[in-house]
Amino acid sequence: MMVNTRRNIAAAGLITASSFLLLQNRLITSPGFRRAESFTVKKYDRKYVSLLSTFLDSHRMKFETEGHTPVLSQSSVELDANGTPRPFKILAFGGSVTWGTKLPNRLEQAYPNLIGAPHFTYVDNLAIRATGADYPSLCLESMLVKAQVDPNESYDVILLEFFVNGLSGLPQLLNRLKHRYPDAVIVVVVLWSIASSVVKVGTRKSPLEIGRNHLINWVWKENAEQKTIVAGLEDFTSKHINGYVYEFPKPERPIDAIRGGWFSDDWQHLSETGHAIVADGIIEMLTSNPDIAQRVTSGQKQVRSFSGVRDKCINWFDNGKLPSSQEFDYEGAELTNLVAQNPDQHKWVLEFPKTGLIKFNSNFETPVPLTLAYMVRQDPAEYPLVVVRLNGGKPCRLDPNTKSWVRPEAHIQSLAEIGWAHPGENNMTITVVKRRKLPFRVSGIIMHHGVSAKDQEVEQFAQPVVSVGARYGCFGRQHALLKMYRAPEHNGETILFLPGWIYTGHERGFFSVPEYIAAGYDIAVMYYQVPRLPFGRMGVCSNKEHFDDLAKIALEKVKSQITEGSEIVISGSKFLVSWSPDLPPNGKYVEGLLYL
Q1: Helices 170-180 and 224-240 meet at what angle, rounded to 10?
Q2: What is the C-alpha to C-alpha distance for residues 26 and 363, in angstroms, rounded to an integer?
Q3: Partners of 390 in the β-ladder
Q4: Peptide bond into 408 cis (omega under 30)
Q5: Which DSSP category does 121 fall into?
Q6: Looking at per-residue confidence, does 546 or 231 come out higher?
Q7: Which of 419, 478, 540, 553 has minimal Cβ neighbours within 10 Å of its Cβ?
Q8: What is the pLDDT of residue 35?
Q9: Which helix (H) or strand (E) holds 231?
Q10: CB neighbours (10 Å) of residue 240?
Q11: What is the DSSP secondary structure assignment for residue 367, as one 8-state letter?
Q12: Which range has the worst mean pLDDT, 337-341, 438-442, 501-505?
């Protein structure tokens, strides 16, 4: 069941006039504000203490929303052996907001911790600053440290917040989480920031361009693409993982969020008030709907194995800790804390000013893809251009001055597949070919074995890869390829699959080649060869202007290779297919079939 958080803004946590308390005037001295001006900051009154207390008190709660009635009583909450209510176990992934940047006490004030309060030890906040969904999608096993100690460690609620830092890899992450924790309630959290969501009336300039001044007449920036993505997330989440989307509410005017103190002084990260609003909104979602509430409060949740998809990730960004020199070593670099001026902050990288080397061991029994995590920023372009080689293999040219999902001046972690790591010792050389102001910064390495037994079996049906052509896309010139699989017992239909996120060739998100081949379908998958994406050799980052041409070429190539009389079914991302309205008449498009 899908919860529409837009239908009841009050229920989602929007501050109303009745819930404000006027505080003492305070002077705003943040950059971009006029020091001579002040305004009244309004305090947000929490609606709920925590998720557990809300369930325990639900039999006597009075909700402000008309028609809203309690759905659970205290007896609905699971009790431990001593008859004490068991705290809910919460797992959270995300970026700097979920991590708790700018909060005085992030371990208690970040919204996942507020939801689980006061039982903070039951909250595993695995958010990583300056990081999108691609990293945890590849490193889930390595990140779940508790599971390495107790394989049966389960969770009641899983929160994912990547709308700010990047959604690439989110379907793969959701798929791995749903397989591992099939009974957990998964909530995708959609956040926004004042800095990236408003423009000045008349000039249409953003706070990043003209400063963060509350006296300016700010209006909400129209963003049709964002609305489409949110709608897609809601549809995707409800259909494929039986999950939900919580969307941080927007007041009618930006000034209400500014004067309400929803954001910290950088207008990017949520303040204590902002985190409280998010926590209340998610608690409201989890407790006000009987179906969701029943899933949250059900007993011990099932835990499955990692199903053949394994990973080994070494990342020192958050703590500066490196493995032993026998497992990992480096030359020509210096381990540096990028925020050393603040003794309580940590953002550690290996800085390579010129040429360097990273040595590491792989414990996998077969060669596995090696992905490099490194820092990127779009503007200003101060990072050097580098060439990376793994074990003397093909050079991989990296430009860290790449287009950013978030604001252009932000330093964020990006991933690039470099080559194949062999069992035992591996050597990766890094050569700076064009020096600039900043050194090349490495934050981790990833080894990911994503080939399941089913995937290995299905390769016997694969046909030689066919070139579709090259066009410019999100990450420069992209070479489109077409891979076909022929079913041993063909049913008369061929599926042309146009992925909308990441097609890895192995773990295919919610598109399962083996099952459809077993059902008698011939399969054709079009994907892009994009070096800078995770599993870049099989990734999609489509540019709308060029996607139509490539899709039409792919369709013609499929028509030339299919069994005579076979009908073509076009499927994949409905957004990509909708870009090409003249494609379905050449075959047919079944919405929802293999929908990614």
Answers
A1: 20
A2: 57
A3: 428
A4: no
A5: G
A6: 231
A7: 553
A8: 31
A9: helix 224-240
A10: 16
A11: -
A12: 501-505
